[in-house]
Amino acid sequence: QCLFFFGLSALHVPKRMQMGRDQSPDRSAGLAKDELSPASDNEAVSEETQRQVVLSIAAYSVLICFVDGLSITCAPFLAASIGIPTSLYAVSIATMPLVRLLATWPTTFTANLHGRTPVLRAATATSMAVVPLMGFSMSLLYFAALKGLMGLGDAAAQVCIPFMLSDVSVPGNRSRTFAVFRVSRCAGQGIGPVTGGFLAAKFGPRAVFFGTAPVLGLAALLAWLLPETLPEQARAKADCCEQVRELADGACAVGSDRGMQFALLVQFIETVVSKAMAFVIVPHVCLQRLHMGPSQLGILYTAGSVTKMLCAMPSSFLSDKLGRKTAVTAGLILQASMIAAMPLWRSGWQMILAFIPYSAAGTLNNAGFDPYFADLNNDDTKARDQALALQRNALDVGEIVGGPVLGALASSHASSWLFKIPPILLLFSGLSFACLARETTTVEN
């Protein structure tokens, strides 16, 4: 019921804006066309299709992120049972974003050529085949290889879902439309870690990976039922070589914008810190220094996900009403403060409580960043897709760099700098974004 309400609230603004155009043409005459209406390619998408897309993606995301939550909790303990140290574990999980990085542009090309839903279905089928096999991990090489294959399926899902949501939204409500996805994602990630922690403590981490097969099968069924959001006339029509050339030229044109470059740099720095903290440093501190077990680690991740779920809609309203810059700056400053205070926590429960405001800061970052890149190229479907793909590249490169670098720092004698350098980077990035980035929300909602 909550997801249905969020979907209706996110889709209410375009309908109201359309009524305003029909009833008061003079009032909208002074505003730019791209501020009041979706891109011309999106006008073929009906309101019923919009609602179906948003709610179907919400249900799909709950299942997929539930599996992700199981994996986040169980993977460190599975790696420890194999004998993989923290530094090598950080390198092994970096294969997932590395494959995502390599697959992003082929996925973008395919989604523009054949539509969004075929790519999403293939991604779900890949995950359904690979994730249960993690239970058979017996070596570092096998573990890293399966992480890479998981990245292949994850790349298609991470690319296609933002494409579909941007297809059916406008700048005035885009952050709230994306928030439906974030709420459902956090709901799945909130249930997954605590479930995985208790199941791993009772049956072992391998059994948890084996049990993901039916959940992924249900997600594959939902992916098959999703409607297509890219109209036929908006799809690529040229031959393959011409399409690749056009995609490369468009990506260069989009990436040459100074505002885009600066936003990508800030997104990269935020990802380097936040991904390494969530997947490498926090588990390292919890296991090595605080001696937390699977159940407590699962509770920590669940507390973070529930916080993100509760903060998703308020932070999205803040992003839509006060601007993307406000959300990003507030999130980065709060995140820097919580990382700087992390060495003060002396027990597992203190770490769990401190992880709550840290997760709220990440929600603010997402509420500002996710729609920002689509807003910069709202009136062109292909340019918007390329901007979102460039954001995906920045996220993947940041995850590739952050995990191994901070993981090696955690294992070295310079580990005291682990909670000094990242907060300085985040604080500097937040203040720079507040002063130098251009705002993309101009419509009174």
Automatic annotation (TrEMBL):
Residues 18-44 are annotated as: Disordered. It is found in: Membrane. InterPro entries: MFS, MFS_dom, MFS_trans_sf, Sugar_transport-like, Sugar_transporter_CS. One of its GO terms (cellular component) is membrane. The chain crosses the membrane at residues 57-79, 86-105, 125-145, 207-226. It is a multi-pass membrane protein. Residues 53-441 form the Major facilitator superfamily (MFS) profile domain. GO terms for molecular function: transmembrane transporter activity. SUPFAM superfamilies: MFS general substrate transporter. Keywords: Membrane, Transmembrane, Transmembrane helix. Pfam families: MFS_1. This is Major facilitator superfamily (MFS) profile domain-containing protein.
